[in-house]
Design goal:
Length: 265
């Protein structure tokens, strides 16, 4: 089950500057004239230490934060002027699952369709069923509430909820950071499977080097509110778990680690 045939979007950030007020009253620059192009249909990971502006940039792309200068455009349409229409192409997966505690898993997954006035018709229900199955939640889980789910199950439900509206842009802010390494690896594979099925453009935030290498077509290393380096990642497709134990993966890890260290030192 796929989205209707719409060209995948290219995201272009030009001169994006964001400042936040400090307790002292003077502004703190979080993004500083940042330039970045995210190719259509790619998985681009924003990698860097805490405080470098990764999550802020993701929220700027989502239209949740307005820059004081610069612009984000999607397929040459400005987020400032066409924001409402462009945001309909996006879904956001946060670090916390953000499931509503009084709704069942299925009701939570249906929420974006309801908010977009798509209702609970047969088509939207079928989309919800489809993505719940894709993320590996059994029918017995669909009637559970969030307090009955493990952390991994909550995140699977959150991903299913994001995909139900068939986004062309999937924004993910460290969604697996709180999970153990084994579960994180499984959900990395799930995310790649979903990106392939939906053929969407993915922007993923992490500070985990191994995760960034495994899932990415491109890694954008961030430092002090700018893109310090862009690194293409070339491995055979599909990417399988055994890749992590190969010599090319280890060599790439060392290269990315060195670049990250240089960027922040």
């Amino acid at each position: 089950m796929t989205a209707e045939s719409v060209p995948n979007p290219t995201i272009h950030c030009s001169g994006v500057t964001v400042q936040f007020p400090t307790q002292a009253g003077s502004p703190q620059t979080v993004l500083d004239r940042l330039d970045l192009t995210i190719p259509t249909g790619s998985v681009t990971t924003l990698l860097g230490p805490s405080g470098c502006g990764k999550s802020t940039l993701l929220r700027v792309i989502a239209g949740l934060i307005q820059p004081i200068a610069g612009e984000v455009s999607i397929d040459q349409r400005s987020l400032r002027t066409d924001g409402k229409k462009l945001r309909e192409m996006m879904s956001f997966v946060f670090q916390e699952s953000a499931l509503l505690p009084w709704r069942t898993v299925l009701q939570n997954v249906m929420l974006p369709a309801e908010l977009r006035c798509m209702g609970r018709n047969k088509a939207t229900l079928e989309q919800a069923y489809h993505w719940l199955e894709i993320v590996g939640l059994s029918k017995s889980d669909w009637t559970k509430r969030p307090n009955q789910l493990s952390g991994g199950m909550k995140m699977r439900a959150s991903i299913a909820r994001a995909m139900t509206t068939l986004p062309k842009i999937l924004l993910m802010d460290e969604p697996f950071a709180a999970l153990d390494d084994v579960l994180r690896s499984k959900l990395n594979d799930l995310m790649l499977k979903i990106a392939e099925e939906q053929q969407c453009t993915v922007v993923f935030v992490t500070h985990n080097i191994s995760e960034a290498i495994y899932i990415s077509d491109t890694i954008a290393v961030m430092s002090e509110g700018k893109i310090a380096r862009k690194l293409p990642i070339h491995f055979d497709e599909p990417r399988l778990p055994k890749l992590r134990s190969t010599e090319p993966f280890a060599r790439t890890y060392g290269n990315v680690s060195d670049i990250l260290f240089q960027a922040v030192s």
